């Protein structure tokens, strides 16, 4: 019966979001309330559970996402992202242009949200395609693959970061494992798959995008742009390596854990960026504060949706659902990684939102970690992989790709939807293989 209630809750969530177009945050809170009542929880305890779920999920996550958004916006507004992209492309040359785009997307993707990175890199993709006289998708697909993989696999992006919080996974190890799996995944979904799409050759859309192009003097240097944007990654990776190689009680461990904490790492990056991307570029504090304020507007609703997913998760836990699922899994031979991936994949195809799918699947799959002893870091990547599978018409990202690359719906499915599915399946296979040795 408890699983039937969960199924009813998920079906209700789909109905509210797909049929009635309800806001994701409101829908998640209503479903959490409904599931709690159907599970027989007292009214007052349901409300407390929802509050605890939202607060517990957004505690450190709001800080990480807030600082991450600030860093990404400063990188974009000062011309740093454009500097990274143009320099890499110049160094690689036209013959290896796909790899330049992949590396650019991967580098930019660490610091920027998917939609921001996508729109930011489009002018470069258009310029490359026109000057090299190659199809748009030949360079567009590698760019989208790199951005999508960082969005689905790697902290500090919202989905992986929120799932890591739910699973109590180590952020540094999640980043390390995610990077290991991301490299072959990007290669297959990007440059390799793009070679099968040369037959789709559409003109560059006219008047669709008119971004600011920075002059040489306006942009910061390549080294400072890359170094500043990767400060959180460097610090979190340092912590993960220190925890793996240093013995307990080592004097350097507390230092690595302090500076490698995701909140501290992103805060340090923002403080550095205030100088490298702001004051050092001749910007006033008023201009910098305007950038910081606008960056928060981008993630406000995203934070609420993630909080709503946390409420749903907490109700499932407080109603005893975690113990029920754990007892079932104790007798099951199915891989917990595959089960977590499957839950996220079904929700992604049904809901469209990768973030909502990931957070909801995280709440349902959380009991599997304690029961099976599976690596919580690999579970984060498994759920993240499932949450990006087969983007289609209910996903805003589908229409973003379609319109900017001037495609039909069929061509978008053949390119974008398949690309996302390749990423998802490669992520699952990588998790299963890595799970044999971790």
TrEMBL record:
InterPro entries: Glcn_transporter. This is Gluconate permease GntT. One of its GO terms (cellular component) is plasma membrane. Belongs to the GntP permease family. One of its GO terms (molecular function) is gluconate transmembrane transporter activity. Signal peptide: none annotated. It comes from Klebsiella oxytoca. Keywords: Cell membrane, Membrane, Transmembrane, Transmembrane helix, Transport. It is a multi-pass membrane protein. It is found in: Cell membrane. The chain crosses the membrane at residues 58-76, 97-130, 136-154, 175-194, 224-246, 258-278, 298-316, 337-366, 378-401, 413-437. It comes from the Bacteria. PANTHER family: GNT FAMILY GLUCONATE TRANSPORTER, HIGH-AFFINITY GLUCONATE TRANSPORTER. Pfam families: GntP_permease (PF02447).
């Amino acid at each position: 019966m408890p699983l039937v209630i969960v199924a009813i809750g998920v079906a209700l969530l789909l109905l509210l979001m797909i049929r009635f177009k309800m806001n994701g945050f409101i829908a998640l809170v209503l479903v959490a309330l409904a599931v709690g009542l159907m599970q027989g929880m007292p009214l007052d305890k349901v409300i407390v559970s929802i509050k605890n779920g939202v607060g517990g999920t957004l505690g450190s996550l709001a800080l990480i996402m807030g600082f991450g958004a600030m860093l990404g916006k400063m990188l974009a507004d000062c011309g740093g992202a454009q500097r990274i992209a143009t320099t890499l492309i110049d160094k690689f040359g036209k013959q290896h242009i796909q790899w330049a785009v992949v590396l650019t997307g991967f580098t930019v993707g660490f610091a920027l949200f998917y939609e921001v990175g996508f729109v930011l890199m489009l002018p470069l993709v258009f310029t490359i395609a026109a000057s090299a006289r190659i199809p748009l998708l030949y360079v567009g697909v590698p760019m989208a693959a790199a951005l999508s993989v960082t969005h689905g696999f790697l902290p500090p992006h919202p989905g992986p970061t929120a799932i890591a919080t739910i699973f109590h996974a180590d952020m540094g190890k999640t980043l390390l494992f995610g990077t290991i799996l991301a490299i072959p995944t990007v290669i297959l979904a990007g440059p390799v798959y793009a070679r099968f799409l040369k037959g789709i050759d559409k003109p560059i859309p006219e008047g669709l995008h008119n971004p600011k192009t920075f002059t040489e003097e306006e942009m910061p240097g390549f080294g400072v742009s890359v170094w500043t944007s990767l400060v959180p990654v460097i610090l979190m990776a340092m912590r993960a390596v220190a925890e793996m190689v240093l013995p307990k009680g080592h004097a350097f461990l507390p230092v690595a854990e302090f500076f490698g904490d995701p909140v501290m790492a992103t805060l340090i990056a923002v403080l550095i960026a205030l100088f490298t991307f702001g004051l050092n570029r001749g910007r006033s504090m008023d201009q910098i504060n305007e950038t910081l304020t606008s960056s928060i507007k981008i993630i406000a609703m995203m934070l609420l949706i993630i909080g709503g997913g946390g409420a749903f998760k907490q109700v499932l836990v407080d109603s005893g659902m975690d113990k029920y699922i754990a007892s079932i899994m104790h007798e099951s031979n199915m891989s917990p990684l595959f089960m977590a991936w499957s839950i996220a994949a079904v929700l992604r195809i049904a809901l469209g939102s990768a973030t909502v799918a990931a957070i909801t699947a995280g709440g349902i799959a959380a009991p599997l970690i304690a029961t099976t002893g599976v690596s919580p870091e690999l579970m984060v990547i498994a759920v993240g992989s499932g949450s990006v599978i087969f983007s289609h018409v209910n996903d805003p990202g589908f229409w973003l790709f379609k319109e900017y690359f001037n495609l039909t719906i069929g061509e978008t499915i053949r390119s974008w939807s398949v690309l996302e599915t390749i990423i998802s399946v490669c992520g699952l296979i990588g998790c299963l293989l890595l799970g044999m040795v971790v």
